[in-house]
Write a structure and sequence with these properties.
Distance between the termini: 33 Å
Radius of gyration: 17 Å
Strand content: 15-25%
Structural class: alpha+beta
Largest sheet: 7 strands, antiparallel
Helix content: 10-25%
Length: 274
């Protein structure tokens, strides 16, 4: 068993991502091949999810998981991000076969919680799992959960800004990142890094999001202009957060956080679903 590179973050009802890197993943890194990078967008087929107000949405975890009482929030951001991504990868018939309701937000949120539960099991480095312990999970754990369910047939990794942009040419990606307090208060356009002093704000924990667009690509002398190249991501804190549930960040912010971030692209290229 290889030695994993693990960074654990405080688990909170809205933040539950841990950074887990497996050195074997480097064999599945997709290096930037020099092709021209263009703006792209991949829109989820499900409504914006909300991991923070479960009971009001009609999501009852007690009945579903044999708990004594319902919980109102879960650190299930990895499951939520993966569910948004899966809604893009799968056709509507495939999503229905997988048990993902593309139209009912409560059902989709319940699906995301199930993925989160699976991800905590795949994170074998942890002692506890959900249910009943809200321990958080990792991008690697939820990618393994998707593969073990037969919903994807592979997943690749990016380790540089250019590789991240290249992956977005072919589909959405999961981004796990350290979450600073300033990010929770985006501007009217959804930019979480609008405050140039964001790095000085407290580190609240780790968060997983689904990057769904390379909205703007800027270059200077053939090199990516990181300050003017923008990403858009789907968050899981309801449609009232950010820009109707989406956030934006500059590629320079990703670059600043890269050492403590991970980028995974689950793929659905040759899978035949039941």
């Amino acid at each position: 068993m290889p030695t994993l590179d693990i960074t654990e973050y405080p688990v909170k009802p809205h933040l539950g991502r841990h950074r887990v890197l497996d050195p074997r993943s480097l064999a599945y890194r997709r290096p930037y091949d020099g092709h021209t990078l263009r703006a792209t967008a991949w829109e989820p087929r499900i409504p914006v999810l909300d991991q923070t107000r479960l009971i009001a949405q009609g999501v009852h975890t007690a009945a579903g998981y044999g708990l004594d009482e319902d919980v109102d929030a879960l650190a299930s951001c990895t499951g939520n991000a993966a569910t948004a991504l899966l809604s893009i990868l799968l056709t509507p018939p495939e999503a229905a076969a997988a048990g993902l309701n593309l139209h009912d937000p409560a059902d989709a949120q319940a699906f995301a919680i199930g993925l989160y539960a699976d991800a905590t099991i795949r994170d074998r480095w942890q002692q506890y799992t959900w249910p009943t312990d809200d321990v958080g999970s990792s991008g690697l754990g939820v990618a393994k959960a998707l593969r073990d369910r037969g919903l994807i047939d592979q997943y690749g990794h990016a380790t540089t800004a250019e590789e991240l942009c290249m992956l977005l040419q072919t589909g959405p990606v999961l981004l796990g990142m350290p979450w600073h307090a300033a990010f929770s208060d985006p501007d009217s356009d959804g930019f979480v890094d609008h405050d140039p002093t964001w790095a000085d704000s407290p580190l609240e924990g780790g968060h997983e999001v689904c990057v769904i667009a390379l909205e703007s690509v800027a270059t200077v002398d053939g090199t990516l202009d990181l300050d003017h190249t923008y990403l858009r991501f789907r968050n899981s804190w309801s449609g009232t957060w950010g820009d109707h549930g989406d956030g934006r960040l500059r590629l320079s912010t990703y670059q600043a956080l890269r050492a403590q971030s991970d980028v995974i692209q689950p793929r659905h290229d040759g899978v035949t679903l039941p």
